[in-house]
């Protein structure tokens, strides 16, 4: 299996898990699938990088697939939470858009003479942890009063900080 096949597999897994949540209108059992899919996705992301480096499979196509796959996977896994009762659809959409922007700004570091920016506080792994825990809480039947809104507002705020931090470091041409 090639690194690119692993990358595509992670994206397909994310799309399948997100579709399950979306089509079930956020049924509790489908929300339990999200943390599992996130765990496997993160493992596959690590594996594709190791394959590319250690077996000489790195390529421009692979780099593009990796970056696009991350954004598509985020959208596929996180956007369906907008249909979950008790979760604010506008805040979910805002978080998904900001997550994509944070990845775009991270890539721009290369354009300005530095490396790919991975600065936080709400990078890919942090988002996976936050959305995974949120999904797990929903799946476990936790009451859905105000706390999901507070969590989503926190994610949105941390994404804004991440975007500004990455942009600042990218413009300085700093190394990741």
UniProtKB/TrEMBL annotation:
The Swiss-Prot or TrEMBL record annotates one GO molecular function as: CDP-diacylglycerol-glycerol-3-phosphate 3-phosphatidyltransferase activity
Keyword terms of this UniProt record: Membrane, Transferase, Transmembrane, Transmembrane helix
EC numbers, comma separated? 2.7.8.5
Task: Kindly give the InterPro entries that the UniProt entry links to this protein.
Answer: CDP-OH_P_trans, CDP-OH_PTrfase_TM_dom
Keyword Ribosomal protein belongs to the record? no
Residues annotated as transmembrane: 146-164
Taxonomically, the superkingdom here is: Bacteria
The protein here is known as CDP-diacylglycerol--glycerol-3-phosphate 3-phosphatidyltransferase
Q: Which organism is it from?
A: Desulfomicrobium macestii
